[in-house]
Amino acid sequence: MTMAAELVRRGAERFGTRTAVVFEDRSLTYREVDAAANQFAGVLASRRIGKGDRVALLAGNELWSISLDFACLKAGVVRVPLNPRLSLHEHRQMVEDTGARLMVHTPELTERAEALQSAVAGLEAMGMGGPGAGGSPDLLVEASALPTDPPLVPLSPSDPMLLLYTSGTTGTLKAVTHTQGSYGAITANILANLLSPGRDSVMLHAASLIHASGTFVLPYWLRGGAAVVLRGFEPAEFLAAIERHRVTEVNVVPTMLGMLLATAPESHADVSSLRTVIYGASPMPRPLITEAMARWGPIFKQYYGQSEAPLCITVLDEADHEDPELLGSCGHPAVDAEVRLAADDGSPIPPGEIGEIQVRAPFQMAGYHHADELNAEMATVDGWIRTRDLARQDERGYLFLVDRSSDMIVTGGYNVYPREVEDALMTHPAVAECAVVGAPDPTWVEAVVAFVALRPGSDATVEELQDTVRARLAGYKVPKRVEIVETIPKSPVGKILRRALREPLWAER
Fold first, then answer.
1. C-alpha 425 chain-centroid distance
2. Do 406 and 171 meet the contact criterion of CB atoms below 8 Å apart?
3. Cα 114 to Cα 127: distance, rounded to the nearest angstrom
């Protein structure tokens, strides 16, 4: 099993003078990216951050983001990405749970970094591109004085390199552990199933590099391609970047695709350079993909995966999209993955019947951090990962998702688990009980909707209830709609019947 750090070395050695990264009006060659990574690793070592230590990354997309990721790989340091959209409460949980001693942050997130440093005793900080929280040093300034020699750190495929937090299928924040070996296998998985970039390939990154977008960096790095990085997603800017940089591939979620199609007629941008549009993260509405193919051609490819087994568990390729019967499928199993449908007792499910998707692959996680009980629940004794997603399989082996046993909501490509929103709502003194479900939404695919029953004699406005959630959770988890009801439907044994609340919302569509 090839280590991710070894893949970084190979790409730098082979393509030193080629352009690797483009950000705004600046670009970096492979050699410059690699040299900066070595210097950043030197800064970490000077602060006694070494192999196995955790570093929290509170950063948006920047010119040096990839170099920082590579520095951690080379130094054997475990990255703990802090999604900037999460709340201070969630960030504090993540830092304390992993024991991260150092936080690196970008200038626009200094206020949050200072709040987090105040909330977590002993947490050191460094800025990246400016002074850090509390006047701490700038990583770029300290790195500029150091040699560019690579760190000499003995590494093995089983060494952890990433603790990626997800609420996923269980509803509570937990960290998926990926290793040098599993991350190397993710690169191989993408190259084997999704795309085969060459030296003329250019991928545009607008989504955060700490999510699925970042997994595409190493495949392009190995093949001599370039990464064009935007600070964030704005449809007109995204389309203009495709034309300006002659972008050949993009990775989007359905919400992004819908915004691009709505903006494209006004932008007049030339997107003819696109060879492949990859999408995933949430279900694709059939009318949207049909319109996209009619306007941009047969260049669409879908993947289904999870943080626990990224990136591709199944793939629906360009030719599959030409079959109308397959537009509702999440694809055929990836060539490097074993995929099965199983009943609750682990017995196999015949074609046409509904069962849980389970996967076994070299790119699967090593396990959840500090969660022995959860690991025992989510992994079978023979090494299969339980996805908690329910599907049926046709006679050709294509999988069709039919429900989530977890009731997870996917809004704008982000996972929201109802229980964490319900827990936040229950902190309001007027709330007696509540239930949260997903409803169809033309922009976000699914929107978070809360049904709330109040205590007798109590009162609360919709805005108050939304603010209660906003104080504890990320903005995208705040219910777009709150319904005040007399009672919450339950089963005879007292279990909340979310389906009874959800189905009428989807029937309204």
1. 25
2. yes
3. 11
Instruction: List helix spans (H) across 148-198.
Output: 180-193
CB 80 within 8 A of CB 57: yes
| pLDDT per position as a tens digit, 4-56 | 999 999 999 999 999 999 999 999 999 999 999 999 999 999 999 999 999 99
**Pairing verdict, β 414-416 and 409-411:** antiparallel
C-alpha–C-alpha distance, residues 341 and 394, integer Å: 11
- Give the pLDDT band of residue 168 (cuts 50, 70, 90): low
pTM of the full structure: 0.87
Cis upstream peptide for 311 (omega within 30°): yes
Mode of pairing for the β-strands spanning 409-411 and 249-252: unpaired
Q: Are 444 and 255 in contact (CB under 8 A)?
A: yes
Pairwise CA distance, residues 385 & 378, whole Å? 6
3-state SS of 381-404 is CCCCEEEEEEEEECCCCCEEEEEE
244 CB-near residues (< 8 Å, 6+ apart): none
Domain architecture of the chain: domains with CATH: 1-155 (3.40.50.12780), 196-297 (3.40.50.980), 409-508 (3.30.300.30)
Place of tokens 């000499």: 152
Beta strand residue intervals within 146-225, DSSP E: 160-166, 174-179, 202-205
Q: What angle do CA 152, 153, 159 make, to 5 degrees?
A: 155
Q: Residue 493 above 90 pLDDT?
A: no
Q: Are 355 and 390 in contact (CB under 8 A)?
A: yes
CA dihedral 101, 76, 10, 25 (to 10 degrees): 0
> In the chain, what's the furthest Cα-to-Cα distance?
72
Closest CA to 369 of 441, 431, 308: 308
d(CA 497, CA 494): 9
**Token pair listed for 167:** 């609420």
Tallying the residues shown for the chain, one arrives at 509
Q: Nearest CA to 357 among 327, 337, 328, 336?
A: 337
